[in-house]
Amino acid sequence: MQKYGQHFLIDAHIIAQIVDAACLLRAENVVEIGPGKGALTRALAARGVPLTAVEIDPDMVRHLRENLPAGVCVVEQNFLEFDLAALPPVPTEFVSNLPYIDAAAILDKVLGWVHFKTAVFMFQKEQAQKIRAQVGDEWYGPLSIFSQLRARISPVCKVGRSSFAPPPKVESAVLAFEKITPPQGDWGKLRRVVTAAFLHRRKTLLNALMLSGYEKEEITSALAALGVLPTARPEQLTPKQYAELTLHW
Predict the structure, then answer these.
(1) What beta strand segments (E) does 34-181 contain?
(2) Strands 172-179, 151-159: pairing kind
(3) Per the domain annotation, does 101 fall within a domain?
(4) Looking at the 3D structure of the chain, how many domains does it have?
(5) Which of 137, 163, 179 is the last residue of a domain?
């Protein structure tokens, strides 16, 4: 039954911790991404939450439809291609043991949706560290900034390799996300600036942005408006400072 490199969560204790976190953050609607064989799905359904499960694997979809309670809506689709407008326009929570290869893209899609309220997601340990990294940390970068500008993030639990079948080669961690008001301004421009800055993270922010085609005068003027020295490096600006930076040119 395994076509997509899935590592199925089998640890009842971890499943309980995820469900407890999800129900604590409870929204009006819940979406599980990539339910696989449904171990987490059944635990969520047992709590009586309104639940939609989006699964890419047709074999898993068939298994889920045959074995889950009738009230669970199972959608056969790649979540990254799933139109979120098909969901009820109400505050929504997302839950998932995320596929490692698409985890960042899925997180970005969820955090950017207008009706996102909360999420409980499992990530590869290093990716979880990147999401929570603070200014100056080794893991701090675009994923940290884009996540922290849109959600309050807290750890739920660590997950060892033995919690899956088959066991992955890496350890995992579960994080909870609660929506916060994102910064005003052009989000596309913010993405371009942050991405450009960290393409050359060993250089000063000024030089990194110049190498990506930004004009020296507009960069220095924007940095001065924030009270940031031109010798600052990309990892020394907070997410809020990056958001403010793009408002100054």
Answers:
(1) 51-55, 73-76, 92-97, 116-124, 151-159, 164-165, 172-179
(2) antiparallel
(3) yes
(4) 2
(5) 179
DSSP 46: H
Q: Are strands 92-97 and 116-124 parallel, antiparallel or unpaired?
A: parallel
Residue with token string 């009586």: 48
The share of the chain scoring above pLDDT 70, in percent, equals 98
Please report, as a single letter, which amino acid is at residue 228: V
Give tens-digit pLDDT for 2-60. 455 578 899 999 999 999 999 988 889 999 999 999 999 999 999 888 899 999 999 99
Angstrom distance (rounded) from CA 160 to CA 216: 47
How many whole angstroms separate alpha carbon 44 and alpha carbon 207?
A: 49
Q: Please compute the mean of the pLDDT values over residues 67-91 and round it to a whole number.
A: 95
**End-to-end CA separation in angstroms for the chain:** 53
Looking up residue 191, the CATH number of its domain turns out to be 1.10.8.100
pTM: 0.93
Which pLDDT value is given to residue 4? 53
Task: Name which of 219, 191, 193 is nearest 206 in CA terms.
Answer: 219
Tracing tokens 């010798």 back to the chain, one arrives at 231
- Bridge partners of 76, per DSSP, are 55
As a whole number of angstroms, the distance between CA 210 and CA 187 comes to: 20
Convert the pLDDT of each residue in 187-215 to its tens digit. Answer: 999 999 999 999 998 899 999 999 999 99
The per-residue pLDDT for 2 is: 45
Domain presence at residue 2: no
- Report if residue 136 sits inside a domain: yes
CB 246 within 8 Å of CB 226: no
Q: Are 96 and 212 contained in the same domain? A: no
